[in-house]
């Protein structure tokens, strides 16, 4: 069981960074110690991290789109 917990913590830290590892550690400590406050804080942190990670990759912002169009226009001008 400790190996599974360690693997999941490392996977979360790899995908979500340091705060993902902290949230997984809080959840594991909350379960192991029976502390519901720790467990809830870890779950909320993980939910917020997953929500922000999902939103950041959903669609490019308007600034990114305009930069892409400007880059394409510059490419067309150089190769004309």
Task: Describe the 3D structure.
86% of the residues lie in helices and 0% in strands. The protein is mainly α and 80 residues long. The longest helix has 21 residues, at 36-56. The termini are far apart. The mean pLDDT is 75.
Number of strands: 0
The secondary-structure element order is HHHH
Strand content: under 5%
Distance between the termini: 63 Å
Q: Secondary-structure map with pairings?
A:
Elements: H1 2-16, H2 18-33, H3 36-56, H4 62-78
Helix pairs in contact: 1-2, 2-3
Short structural description:
With 80 residues, this protein is mostly helical.
Notable features of this structure?
86% helix; elongated; 80 residues; mainly alpha; 4 helices
């Amino acid at each position: 069981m400790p190996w599974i917990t360690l693997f999941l913590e490392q996977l979360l830290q790899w995908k979500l960074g340091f705060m993902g590892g902290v949230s997984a550690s809080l959840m594991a400590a909350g379960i192991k110690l029976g502390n519901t406050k720790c467990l809830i804080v870890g779950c909320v942190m993980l939910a917020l991290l997953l929500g922000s990670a999902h939103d950041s990759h959903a669609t490019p912002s308007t600034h990114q789109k305009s930069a892409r169009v400007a880059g394409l226009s510059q490419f067309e001008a150089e190769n004309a």
